[in-house]
Amino acid sequence: MISQGLVSHKLNFNLLSWQIVLVLSVFAMTILCPAGWILHHLQKDRRRSH
């Protein structure tokens, strides 16, 4: 007999589609906003350093 460990039970809640969209949007914004801010200000910082 093979033990299935922690994956033997099913989760007891369902995510609605708007909840998934909200979570993915927040996740994307937390990664893309700082990167976009850095890229937006990169040229200004290069000009200032010369």
Topology:
Blueprint: H1 17-49
Subcellular location: Mitochondrion inner membrane
Pfam families: COX8
Transmembrane segments: 16-39
Proportion of residues in extended strands: under 5%
Q: How many E-type strands? A: 0
Roughly what is the average pLDDT, rounded to an integer? Answer: 81
Separation of termini?
70 Å
Portion of residues within helices: 55-70%
Number of helices: 1
What is the succession of H and E elements? H
Assembly of the depicted chains:
single chain
Specify the biggest β-sheet. none
Structural class call reads mainly alpha
The radius of gyration computed from the alpha-carbon positions, rounded to a whole number of angstroms, is: 22 Å
Q: What is the global morphology? A: rod-shaped
**Which consecutive residue ranges, at least 5 long each, have pLDDT under 50?**
none
How would you describe this protein?
The protein has 1 helix and no strands. Its main location: mitochondrion. Pfam families: COX8.
